[in-house]
Amino acid sequence: MRRERFKLLLKENLLTLLTITGVIGGIALGIGLREIPAEGGKWTPREVAYINFVGDIFLRMLKALILPLIITSLISAVGCLDLSLSGKIGGRAVLYYITTTIMAVILGIILVVTIQPGKGAEATSTEVTGETRNVTTTDTLLDLVRNMFPPNLVQACLQQFQTVLVPPKHNPHEQDLNLWSVSGKYTDGMNIIGLVVAAIVFGIALSSLKEEVQVVLKFFQQLSHTVMKVTGWVIWLSPLGVLFLITAKLLEMDDLGVVFGKLGLYFAVTAGGILFHGFVILPSILFILTRKNPARFIANMGQAIATAFGTSSSSATLPVTMQCLEEKNHIDPRVSRFVLPIGATINMDGTALYEAVAAIFIAQLRGLPLSFGDIVAISITATAASIGAAGIPQAGLVTLVMVLDTVGLPAEDVSLIIAVDWLLDRFRTVVNVLGDSFGAAIVAHYSQKELAAIPPREEAQKVPRNSMGNSAETVLFEERL
Ligand code: ASP
Question: What superfamily does domain 10-477 belong to in CATH?
Protein backbone atom coordinates (compact mmCIF):
# COMPACT_ATOMS: atom_id res chain seq x y z
CA MET A 1 0.00 0.00 0.00
CA ARG A 2 2.79 2.41 0.95
CA ARG A 3 4.69 1.53 -2.20
CA GLU A 4 1.55 2.08 -4.23
CA ARG A 5 1.11 5.52 -2.71
CA PHE A 6 4.76 6.35 -3.31
CA LYS A 7 4.46 5.29 -6.94
CA LEU A 8 1.31 7.39 -7.35
CA LEU A 9 3.06 10.40 -5.84
CA LEU A 10 6.03 9.99 -8.16
CA LYS A 11 3.74 9.58 -11.16
CA GLU A 12 1.88 12.80 -10.38
CA ASN A 13 4.96 14.89 -9.74
CA LEU A 14 6.72 13.45 -12.73
CA LEU A 15 4.00 14.81 -14.96
CA THR A 16 4.23 18.31 -13.45
CA LEU A 17 7.98 18.20 -13.86
CA LEU A 18 7.64 17.08 -17.46
CA THR A 19 5.15 19.87 -18.21
CA ILE A 20 7.42 22.54 -16.77
CA THR A 21 10.24 21.02 -18.82
CA GLY A 22 7.85 21.32 -21.78
CA VAL A 23 7.46 25.07 -21.17
CA ILE A 24 11.21 25.62 -20.83
CA GLY A 25 11.93 23.33 -23.78
CA GLY A 26 9.37 25.19 -25.88
CA ILE A 27 11.00 28.54 -25.12
CA ALA A 28 14.49 27.19 -25.87
CA LEU A 29 13.39 25.41 -29.02
CA GLY A 30 11.42 28.43 -30.24
CA ILE A 31 14.33 30.82 -29.73
CA GLY A 32 16.78 28.30 -31.22
CA LEU A 33 14.72 27.43 -34.28
CA ARG A 34 14.17 31.10 -35.12
CA GLU A 35 17.82 31.19 -36.14
CA ILE A 36 17.50 28.39 -38.69
CA PRO A 37 16.03 30.16 -41.76
CA ALA A 38 18.63 32.02 -43.77
CA GLU A 39 19.55 35.58 -42.77
CA GLY A 40 16.43 37.68 -42.38
CA GLY A 41 14.23 34.72 -43.38
CA LYS A 42 11.20 33.55 -41.43
CA TRP A 43 9.42 30.29 -40.91
CA THR A 44 6.46 30.14 -43.26
CA PRO A 45 2.95 30.01 -41.77
CA ARG A 46 2.63 26.47 -43.14
CA GLU A 47 5.80 25.31 -41.36
CA VAL A 48 4.63 26.93 -38.13
CA ALA A 49 1.26 25.21 -38.48
CA TYR A 50 2.99 21.85 -38.81
CA ILE A 51 5.10 22.50 -35.73
CA ASN A 52 1.97 23.56 -33.88
CA PHE A 53 0.16 20.33 -34.81
CA VAL A 54 0.64 18.43 -31.55
CA GLY A 55 -0.13 21.56 -29.53
CA ASP A 56 -3.25 22.08 -31.56
CA ILE A 57 -4.47 18.53 -30.90
CA PHE A 58 -3.89 19.04 -27.17
CA LEU A 59 -5.81 22.32 -27.22
CA ARG A 60 -8.69 20.75 -29.12
CA MET A 61 -8.96 17.99 -26.54
CA LEU A 62 -9.00 20.47 -23.67
CA LYS A 63 -11.61 22.59 -25.42
CA ALA A 64 -13.76 19.53 -25.98
CA LEU A 65 -13.81 19.00 -22.23
CA ILE A 66 -14.97 22.52 -21.32
CA LEU A 67 -18.66 22.07 -22.09
CA PRO A 68 -19.24 18.67 -20.42
CA LEU A 69 -17.07 19.69 -17.50
CA ILE A 70 -18.82 22.96 -16.74
CA ILE A 71 -22.31 21.55 -17.08
CA THR A 72 -21.82 18.34 -15.12
CA SER A 73 -19.66 19.77 -12.38
CA LEU A 74 -21.90 22.74 -11.67
CA ILE A 75 -25.13 20.73 -11.74
CA SER A 76 -23.74 17.98 -9.53
CA ALA A 77 -22.06 20.33 -7.07
CA VAL A 78 -25.00 22.71 -6.66
CA GLY A 79 -27.51 19.86 -6.81
CA CYS A 80 -26.04 18.06 -3.82
CA LEU A 81 -25.92 21.12 -1.55
CA ASP A 82 -28.97 22.59 0.08
CA LEU A 83 -30.06 25.96 -1.12
CA SER A 84 -28.83 28.08 1.76
CA LEU A 85 -25.42 26.43 1.70
CA SER A 86 -25.02 26.97 -2.06
CA GLY A 87 -26.00 30.58 -1.43
CA LYS A 88 -23.33 30.91 1.27
CA ILE A 89 -20.62 29.25 -0.81
CA GLY A 90 -21.56 31.32 -3.86
CA GLY A 91 -21.62 34.50 -1.78
CA ARG A 92 -18.19 33.81 -0.29
CA ALA A 93 -16.78 33.12 -3.75
CA VAL A 94 -18.20 36.34 -5.19
CA LEU A 95 -16.87 38.35 -2.22
CA TYR A 96 -13.41 36.89 -2.82
CA TYR A 97 -13.59 37.53 -6.57
CA ILE A 98 -14.60 41.16 -6.18
CA THR A 99 -12.13 41.96 -3.42
CA THR A 100 -9.14 40.43 -5.17
CA THR A 101 -10.03 41.89 -8.56
CA ILE A 102 -10.25 45.38 -7.08
CA MET A 103 -6.94 44.84 -5.28
CA ALA A 104 -5.35 43.85 -8.60
CA VAL A 105 -6.70 46.97 -10.32
CA ILE A 106 -5.44 49.23 -7.52
CA LEU A 107 -1.99 47.62 -7.65
CA GLY A 108 -1.87 48.12 -11.42
CA ILE A 109 -2.89 51.77 -11.12
CA ILE A 110 -0.30 52.48 -8.43
CA LEU A 111 2.44 50.94 -10.57
CA VAL A 112 1.55 52.63 -13.84
CA VAL A 113 0.96 56.04 -12.28
CA THR A 114 4.24 56.03 -10.34
CA ILE A 115 6.49 54.42 -12.97
CA GLN A 116 4.85 56.15 -15.95
CA PRO A 117 6.01 53.76 -18.69
CA GLY A 118 4.12 55.78 -21.32
CA LYS A 119 6.12 58.98 -20.79
CA GLY A 120 8.67 59.34 -23.54
CA ALA A 121 7.81 56.06 -25.25
CA GLU A 122 7.23 56.18 -28.99
CA ALA A 123 3.64 55.88 -30.17
CA THR A 124 4.21 53.51 -33.07
CA SER A 125 1.32 51.23 -33.75
CA THR A 126 1.28 47.78 -35.25
CA GLU A 127 -1.38 46.64 -37.71
CA VAL A 128 -4.53 45.68 -35.90
CA THR A 129 -5.44 42.15 -36.78
CA GLY A 130 -9.14 41.42 -36.91
CA GLU A 131 -11.94 43.94 -36.72
CA THR A 132 -12.24 46.60 -34.08
CA ARG A 133 -15.77 47.01 -32.92
CA ASN A 134 -17.64 50.24 -32.56
CA VAL A 135 -19.46 49.79 -29.29
CA THR A 136 -20.11 51.75 -26.18
CA THR A 137 -19.29 50.55 -22.68
CA THR A 138 -22.97 50.28 -21.84
CA ASP A 139 -23.59 48.01 -24.82
CA THR A 140 -20.77 45.71 -23.80
CA LEU A 141 -22.06 45.47 -20.23
CA LEU A 142 -25.62 44.88 -21.38
CA ASP A 143 -24.40 42.14 -23.72
CA LEU A 144 -22.75 40.45 -20.78
CA VAL A 145 -26.05 40.41 -18.90
CA ARG A 146 -27.99 39.36 -22.02
CA ASN A 147 -25.63 36.44 -22.54
CA MET A 148 -26.43 35.24 -19.02
CA PHE A 149 -29.91 34.44 -20.25
CA PRO A 150 -29.53 32.53 -23.51
CA PRO A 151 -32.85 32.01 -25.28
CA ASN A 152 -31.69 28.70 -26.69
CA LEU A 153 -29.36 26.45 -24.71
CA VAL A 154 -28.22 24.46 -27.73
CA GLN A 155 -27.27 27.68 -29.50
CA ALA A 156 -25.47 28.82 -26.32
CA CYS A 157 -23.07 25.92 -26.80
CA LEU A 158 -22.01 27.47 -30.09
CA GLN A 159 -22.74 31.17 -30.21
CA GLN A 160 -23.10 34.31 -28.16
CA PHE A 161 -24.98 37.55 -28.62
CA GLN A 162 -23.26 40.78 -29.61
CA THR A 163 -24.69 44.25 -30.07
CA VAL A 164 -23.72 45.93 -33.32
CA LEU A 165 -24.07 49.62 -34.04
CA VAL A 166 -24.99 50.64 -37.55
CA PRO A 167 -24.34 54.20 -38.81
CA PRO A 168 -27.38 56.14 -40.04
CA LYS A 169 -28.01 55.59 -43.77
CA HIS A 170 -28.16 59.28 -44.60
CA ASN A 171 -24.84 59.95 -42.84
CA PRO A 172 -22.54 56.90 -42.85
CA HIS A 173 -19.67 58.98 -41.41
CA GLU A 174 -21.60 60.10 -38.32
CA GLN A 175 -19.14 60.32 -35.41
CA ASP A 176 -21.64 60.36 -32.54
CA LEU A 177 -22.33 56.70 -31.67
CA ASN A 178 -25.55 57.74 -29.91
CA LEU A 179 -27.07 58.45 -33.29
CA TRP A 180 -26.23 55.00 -34.66
CA SER A 181 -28.97 52.40 -34.67
CA VAL A 182 -28.60 49.33 -32.50
CA SER A 183 -29.06 45.78 -33.69
CA GLY A 184 -27.72 42.42 -32.61
CA LYS A 185 -26.03 39.39 -34.07
CA TYR A 186 -24.81 36.02 -32.89
CA THR A 187 -21.09 35.43 -33.17
CA ASP A 188 -19.20 32.15 -33.00
CA GLY A 189 -17.88 31.06 -29.62
CA MET A 190 -19.44 29.23 -26.70
CA ASN A 191 -21.59 31.38 -24.43
CA ILE A 192 -19.96 30.05 -21.28
CA ILE A 193 -21.52 32.55 -18.90
CA GLY A 194 -25.01 31.60 -20.16
CA LEU A 195 -24.30 27.92 -19.68
CA VAL A 196 -22.90 28.56 -16.20
CA VAL A 197 -26.07 30.38 -15.17
CA ALA A 198 -28.29 27.68 -16.71
CA ALA A 199 -26.37 24.89 -14.97
CA ILE A 200 -26.57 26.67 -11.60
CA VAL A 201 -30.32 27.14 -11.99
CA PHE A 202 -30.73 23.49 -12.95
CA GLY A 203 -28.62 22.45 -9.95
CA ILE A 204 -30.73 24.60 -7.62
CA ALA A 205 -33.88 22.98 -9.01
CA LEU A 206 -32.42 19.52 -8.39
CA SER A 207 -31.47 20.41 -4.86
CA SER A 208 -34.92 21.77 -4.07
CA LEU A 209 -36.68 18.70 -5.50
CA LYS A 210 -34.38 16.49 -3.42
CA GLU A 211 -35.48 12.85 -3.21
CA GLU A 212 -37.78 13.04 -6.23
CA VAL A 213 -34.85 13.56 -8.61
CA GLN A 214 -32.09 11.52 -7.03
CA VAL A 215 -31.59 9.54 -10.22
CA VAL A 216 -31.00 12.68 -12.28
CA LEU A 217 -28.58 14.03 -9.72
CA LYS A 218 -26.75 10.73 -9.58
CA PHE A 219 -26.57 10.76 -13.38
CA PHE A 220 -24.84 14.15 -13.42
CA GLN A 221 -22.53 13.18 -10.58
CA GLN A 222 -21.37 10.10 -12.38
CA LEU A 223 -21.07 11.97 -15.66
CA SER A 224 -18.95 14.59 -13.93
CA HIS A 225 -16.79 11.83 -12.53
CA THR A 226 -16.41 10.31 -16.01
CA VAL A 227 -15.39 13.65 -17.53
CA MET A 228 -12.73 14.02 -14.86
CA LYS A 229 -11.44 10.57 -15.78
CA VAL A 230 -11.04 11.66 -19.41
CA THR A 231 -9.37 14.86 -18.19
CA GLY A 232 -6.88 12.69 -16.34
CA TRP A 233 -5.93 11.07 -19.64
CA VAL A 234 -5.72 14.30 -21.65
CA ILE A 235 -3.41 15.81 -19.07
CA TRP A 236 -0.76 13.30 -20.04
CA LEU A 237 -0.41 15.12 -23.32
CA SER A 238 0.35 18.45 -21.65
CA PRO A 239 4.19 18.29 -21.66
CA LEU A 240 4.28 17.80 -25.41
CA GLY A 241 1.26 20.02 -26.00
CA VAL A 242 2.71 23.08 -24.26
CA LEU A 243 6.14 22.47 -25.79
CA PHE A 244 4.79 22.68 -29.33
CA LEU A 245 2.34 25.50 -28.61
CA ILE A 246 5.11 27.68 -27.22
CA THR A 247 7.66 26.78 -29.91
CA ALA A 248 5.20 27.57 -32.69
CA LYS A 249 4.19 30.87 -31.09
CA LEU A 250 7.80 31.99 -30.80
CA LEU A 251 8.48 31.10 -34.45
CA GLU A 252 5.50 33.10 -35.58
CA MET A 253 6.55 36.33 -33.85
CA ASP A 254 8.28 39.27 -35.49
CA ASP A 255 11.68 40.42 -34.28
CA LEU A 256 11.46 39.98 -30.51
CA GLY A 257 14.22 42.46 -29.73
CA VAL A 258 12.56 45.32 -31.60
CA VAL A 259 9.18 44.63 -30.03
CA PHE A 260 10.48 44.62 -26.48
CA GLY A 261 12.73 47.56 -27.11
CA LYS A 262 9.74 49.81 -27.77
CA LEU A 263 7.33 48.42 -25.26
CA GLY A 264 9.85 47.08 -22.75
CA LEU A 265 8.90 49.23 -19.78
CA TYR A 266 5.17 48.77 -20.31
CA PHE A 267 5.71 45.03 -20.53
CA ALA A 268 7.86 44.97 -17.40
CA VAL A 269 5.35 47.01 -15.36
CA THR A 270 2.37 44.92 -16.41
CA ALA A 271 4.05 41.52 -16.13
CA GLY A 272 5.71 42.52 -12.83
CA GLY A 273 2.39 43.68 -11.39
CA ILE A 274 0.55 40.57 -12.55
CA LEU A 275 3.18 38.24 -11.12
CA PHE A 276 3.41 40.18 -7.85
CA HIS A 277 -0.35 39.93 -7.42
CA GLY A 278 -0.46 36.20 -8.26
CA PHE A 279 2.66 35.05 -6.46
CA VAL A 280 2.88 37.42 -3.47
CA ILE A 281 -0.44 39.08 -2.66
CA LEU A 282 -2.83 36.19 -3.31
CA PRO A 283 -0.62 33.58 -1.59
CA SER A 284 -0.36 35.92 1.44
CA ILE A 285 -4.15 36.14 1.56
CA LEU A 286 -4.34 32.35 1.40
CA PHE A 287 -1.87 32.04 4.23
CA ILE A 288 -3.52 34.65 6.44
CA LEU A 289 -7.00 33.21 5.97
CA THR A 290 -6.34 29.47 5.92
CA ARG A 291 -2.83 28.96 7.31
CA LYS A 292 -2.11 26.71 4.35
CA ASN A 293 1.43 26.65 2.99
CA PRO A 294 1.15 28.80 -0.18
CA ALA A 295 4.40 27.52 -1.70
CA ARG A 296 3.22 23.95 -1.57
CA PHE A 297 -0.20 24.99 -2.82
CA ILE A 298 1.34 26.73 -5.85
CA ALA A 299 3.72 23.81 -6.50
CA ASN A 300 0.73 21.48 -6.56
CA MET A 301 -0.88 23.71 -9.17
CA GLY A 302 2.24 23.45 -11.39
CA GLN A 303 0.46 21.47 -14.05
CA ALA A 304 -2.33 24.05 -14.33
CA ILE A 305 0.16 26.95 -14.32
CA ALA A 306 2.14 25.41 -17.17
CA THR A 307 -1.01 24.64 -19.14
CA ALA A 308 -2.33 28.18 -18.65
CA PHE A 309 0.98 29.56 -19.90
CA GLY A 310 0.97 27.23 -22.90
CA THR A 311 -2.66 27.71 -23.94
CA SER A 312 -3.39 31.36 -22.92
CA SER A 313 -6.87 30.26 -21.99
CA SER A 314 -8.31 29.84 -18.53
CA SER A 315 -11.35 27.99 -19.92
CA ALA A 316 -9.17 25.46 -21.72
CA THR A 317 -7.10 25.07 -18.54
CA LEU A 318 -10.18 24.51 -16.37
CA PRO A 319 -10.07 20.69 -16.57
CA VAL A 320 -6.44 20.70 -15.45
CA THR A 321 -7.08 23.27 -12.71
CA MET A 322 -9.86 21.14 -11.30
CA GLN A 323 -7.74 18.03 -11.37
CA CYS A 324 -4.80 19.71 -9.58
CA LEU A 325 -7.03 21.34 -7.01
CA GLU A 326 -8.87 18.18 -6.09
CA GLU A 327 -6.23 15.52 -6.44
CA LYS A 328 -3.20 17.41 -5.22
CA ASN A 329 -4.47 20.21 -3.02
CA HIS A 330 -7.35 18.08 -1.76
CA ILE A 331 -10.01 20.75 -2.00
CA ASP A 332 -13.55 19.49 -1.42
CA PRO A 333 -15.01 18.72 -4.89
CA ARG A 334 -18.35 20.20 -3.83
CA VAL A 335 -16.61 23.55 -3.59
CA SER A 336 -14.11 23.26 -6.45
CA ARG A 337 -16.73 22.06 -8.95
CA PHE A 338 -19.03 24.85 -7.90
CA VAL A 339 -16.72 27.82 -7.73
CA LEU A 340 -14.05 26.99 -10.34
CA PRO A 341 -16.26 27.11 -13.46
CA ILE A 342 -17.70 30.41 -12.24
CA GLY A 343 -14.24 31.74 -11.42
CA ALA A 344 -12.84 30.72 -14.81
CA THR A 345 -15.61 32.75 -16.42
CA ILE A 346 -15.75 35.91 -14.33
CA ASN A 347 -12.75 36.11 -12.00
CA MET A 348 -9.70 37.41 -13.83
CA ASP A 349 -7.30 39.31 -11.61
CA GLY A 350 -4.46 39.26 -14.14
CA THR A 351 -6.73 40.66 -16.83
CA ALA A 352 -8.15 43.36 -14.53
CA LEU A 353 -4.68 44.60 -13.60
CA TYR A 354 -3.63 44.58 -17.23
CA GLU A 355 -6.71 46.51 -18.40
CA ALA A 356 -6.00 49.33 -15.97
CA VAL A 357 -2.28 49.50 -16.74
CA ALA A 358 -2.80 49.30 -20.52
CA ALA A 359 -5.44 52.05 -20.62
CA ILE A 360 -3.38 54.44 -18.49
CA PHE A 361 -0.22 53.59 -20.47
CA ILE A 362 -1.98 54.47 -23.72
CA ALA A 363 -3.26 57.73 -22.21
CA GLN A 364 0.30 58.59 -21.13
CA LEU A 365 1.57 57.75 -24.60
CA ARG A 366 -1.00 60.02 -26.17
CA GLY A 367 -0.18 62.78 -23.69
CA LEU A 368 -3.72 62.74 -22.31
CA PRO A 369 -3.82 64.07 -18.74
CA LEU A 370 -6.01 61.97 -16.44
CA SER A 371 -7.96 63.40 -13.54
CA PHE A 372 -8.67 61.48 -10.34
CA GLY A 373 -12.20 60.93 -11.65
CA ASP A 374 -10.79 59.38 -14.83
CA ILE A 375 -8.66 57.00 -12.76
CA VAL A 376 -11.71 55.97 -10.72
CA ALA A 377 -13.69 55.44 -13.94
CA ILE A 378 -10.83 53.36 -15.36
CA SER A 379 -10.72 51.17 -12.27
CA ILE A 380 -14.45 50.50 -12.41
CA THR A 381 -14.48 49.69 -16.13
CA ALA A 382 -11.28 47.63 -15.84
CA THR A 383 -13.05 45.48 -13.24
CA ALA A 384 -16.10 45.16 -15.48
CA ALA A 385 -13.93 44.47 -18.53
CA SER A 386 -12.19 41.62 -16.72
CA ILE A 387 -15.55 40.11 -15.77
CA GLY A 388 -16.74 40.47 -19.35
CA ALA A 389 -13.60 38.97 -20.90
CA ALA A 390 -13.97 35.34 -21.91
CA GLY A 391 -11.37 32.82 -20.78
CA ILE A 392 -9.87 32.60 -24.24
CA PRO A 393 -6.61 33.92 -25.74
CA GLN A 394 -6.37 37.72 -25.83
CA ALA A 395 -9.96 38.29 -24.80
CA GLY A 396 -8.66 41.07 -22.56
CA LEU A 397 -7.42 42.99 -25.57
CA VAL A 398 -10.96 43.05 -26.96
CA THR A 399 -12.60 44.28 -23.75
CA LEU A 400 -9.83 46.88 -23.34
CA VAL A 401 -11.74 48.92 -25.94
CA MET A 402 -14.35 49.49 -23.25
CA VAL A 403 -11.81 50.93 -20.80
CA LEU A 404 -10.30 53.15 -23.49
CA ASP A 405 -13.76 54.40 -24.30
CA THR A 406 -14.28 55.72 -20.75
CA VAL A 407 -11.40 58.18 -21.15
CA GLY A 408 -12.25 59.02 -24.73
CA LEU A 409 -9.49 57.09 -26.44
CA PRO A 410 -10.30 55.41 -29.77
CA ALA A 411 -10.60 51.62 -30.12
CA GLU A 412 -7.76 51.59 -32.68
CA ASP A 413 -5.31 52.50 -29.92
CA VAL A 414 -5.19 48.88 -28.78
CA SER A 415 -2.80 48.47 -31.70
CA LEU A 416 -0.18 50.35 -29.66
CA ILE A 417 0.28 47.43 -27.31
CA ILE A 418 -0.67 44.51 -29.52
CA ALA A 419 2.92 43.50 -30.22
CA VAL A 420 3.57 42.20 -26.69
CA ASP A 421 0.04 41.15 -25.88
CA TRP A 422 0.51 37.49 -26.82
CA LEU A 423 3.09 37.15 -24.04
CA LEU A 424 1.36 39.30 -21.44
CA ASP A 425 -1.73 37.21 -22.11
CA ARG A 426 0.09 34.11 -20.92
CA PHE A 427 1.10 35.75 -17.65
CA ARG A 428 -2.39 37.05 -17.00
CA THR A 429 -3.92 33.66 -17.77
CA VAL A 430 -1.58 32.03 -15.23
CA VAL A 431 -2.65 34.50 -12.55
CA ASN A 432 -6.32 34.23 -13.54
CA VAL A 433 -6.13 30.47 -13.02
CA LEU A 434 -4.19 30.81 -9.77
CA GLY A 435 -6.68 33.39 -8.49
CA ASP A 436 -9.57 30.97 -9.02
CA SER A 437 -7.66 28.21 -7.28
CA PHE A 438 -6.79 30.29 -4.21
CA GLY A 439 -10.42 31.38 -4.11
CA ALA A 440 -11.67 27.79 -4.12
CA ALA A 441 -9.28 26.92 -1.30
CA ILE A 442 -10.38 29.90 0.80
CA VAL A 443 -14.08 29.26 0.22
CA ALA A 444 -13.59 25.56 1.03
CA HIS A 445 -11.83 26.54 4.26
CA TYR A 446 -14.69 28.77 5.40
CA SER A 447 -17.32 26.24 4.35
CA GLN A 448 -15.59 23.28 6.02
CA LYS A 449 -17.90 23.01 9.03
CA GLU A 450 -21.11 23.34 7.05
CA LEU A 451 -19.96 20.76 4.51
CA ALA A 452 -18.89 18.32 7.21
CA ALA A 453 -22.37 18.57 8.73
CA ILE A 454 -23.95 17.11 5.59
CA PRO A 455 -24.23 13.35 5.98
CA PRO A 456 -22.90 11.33 3.03
CA ARG A 457 -25.79 10.42 0.78
CA GLU A 458 -27.23 6.96 1.16
CA GLU A 459 -26.86 5.88 -2.43
CA ALA A 460 -23.24 6.87 -2.51
CA GLN A 461 -22.55 4.76 0.53
CA LYS A 462 -24.02 1.79 -1.21
CA VAL A 463 -21.40 1.99 -3.97
CA PRO A 464 -19.27 -1.05 -3.30
CA ARG A 465 -15.59 -0.23 -3.00
CA ASN A 466 -13.67 -0.77 -6.18
CA SER A 467 -16.86 -1.70 -7.98
CA MET A 468 -15.60 0.05 -11.09
CA GLY A 469 -11.96 -0.59 -10.54
CA ASN A 470 -11.69 2.74 -8.75
CA SER A 471 -9.22 3.45 -6.01
CA ALA A 472 -10.47 4.01 -2.49
CA GLU A 473 -9.89 7.75 -3.01
CA THR A 474 -12.21 7.93 -6.00
CA VAL A 475 -14.99 6.16 -4.17
CA LEU A 476 -14.53 8.47 -1.22
CA PHE A 477 -14.69 11.41 -3.58
CA GLU A 478 -17.94 10.11 -5.06
CA GLU A 479 -19.39 9.89 -1.58
CA ARG A 480 -18.52 13.48 -0.85
CA LEU A 481 -20.19 14.66 -3.98
N1 ASP B 1 -6.49 34.83 -21.93
C2 ASP B 1 -7.02 35.23 -20.69
C3 ASP B 1 -7.68 34.06 -19.99
O4 ASP B 1 -8.09 33.13 -20.65
C5 ASP B 1 -8.02 36.35 -20.82
C6 ASP B 1 -7.31 37.60 -21.24
O7 ASP B 1 -7.16 37.86 -22.41
O8 ASP B 1 -6.87 38.36 -20.36
O9 ASP B 1 -7.77 34.03 -18.80
Answer: Sodium:dicarboxylate symporter (1.10.3860.10)
